[in-house]
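Q: Predict the bound structure with S-adenosylmethionine.
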Amino acid sequence: MLRQLPYLGWWYLRALLGRKAPLQSVIFILDRCNLRCKHCSVYELSNPRSKTLEQIRSELEYCYNAGSRYVDFEGGELYLWRDGDKTIDDVIDAAHEIGFWSVTITTNAQLPFAGSHADQVWVSMDGIGEYHDEIRGKGAFARLEKNVADFKRSKPYGKTLPPVCVNMVINCLNESNVEAALDYVKASPYIDNISINFHTPFKETEGLFLDPDRRNEIIDLLIARKRAGYPIMNTVPGLNAMRMKDGRTVCTDKRCWVTNFIFSDGSRSPKCMGYTHGVCDRCGFSMGGEMCSLFKLSPATIAAGLKLRRRI
Ligand SMILES: C[S@@+](CC[C@H](N)C(=O)[O-])C[C@H]1O[C@@H](n2cnc3c(N)ncnc32)[C@H](O)[C@@H]1O
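A: Predicted complex:
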């Protein structure tokens, strides 16, 4: 980490002076999925795409050469990805070989992920029990619980087990289950922390968008719980930046260019897909709020970012 600080300082200084180079990358490697989540518009049923390891390697090199040093692999479901006998762990190894400092994966935890080579595992959890299943399908929560516990009881691939962060997306189906989800994570011996997002109304999922006043109320609750010691990954300034006023998020300059995106069709963009879909004013991605507060020089956000991205 210490060796990375000069690069990070230099990147930040140049960003303050107006240079827009990515520091992190999100690469979608497939859009095939084993769930049909109500809030999701990423998975593809009729003609799913899956990249080859060679294509992913070349995309990683492109991102690294653009300045990025952290990568998140996304799908679709990463544990369905194959290229011959290669699996998601070979993709993670390729990122480390190229020089990325830290690699995170997002999974729905329906398949075992023990022994993952990732530095951080994000598990999508949209509530407890029936709330999660209502959005993700019957039995999904039980499979998640089992695979998360198996992962935390397994032998680490590296020196230590990567942290497991659950990623909850709050919408009008699960908003009443937020407190229960926070209590569950706090009590869990297997989950390290929780990251909170709000539903972003992509096409055909607009009906799940949460009433702005309710979003603001939940943000108040999250800040109170965080101050009470709950393991909530969002920072207080990041949460405040996700508040809504007059039908739009209070943070209008989200600095989303900190991350560049490569989608499953291979298209490359310096902006999140929310931009192309015209939903930035109702963005619910925690990263939007965190990037906003990063550039307000929030010490809490800078410290949280460094902690999040440490290499295992
Ligand atoms: C597209 S999914 C793919 C990864 C994996 N299959 C999974 O379910 O975790 C990645 C993350 O995006 C979140 N997501 C999907 N649709 C969203 C939306 N409309 N607004 C906010 N987050 C969303 C999911 O809940 C999940 O945590």
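A: The beta strands are 24-28, 70-74, 102-107, 120-124, 164-170, 193-198, 244-245, 248-249, 259-262, 268-269.
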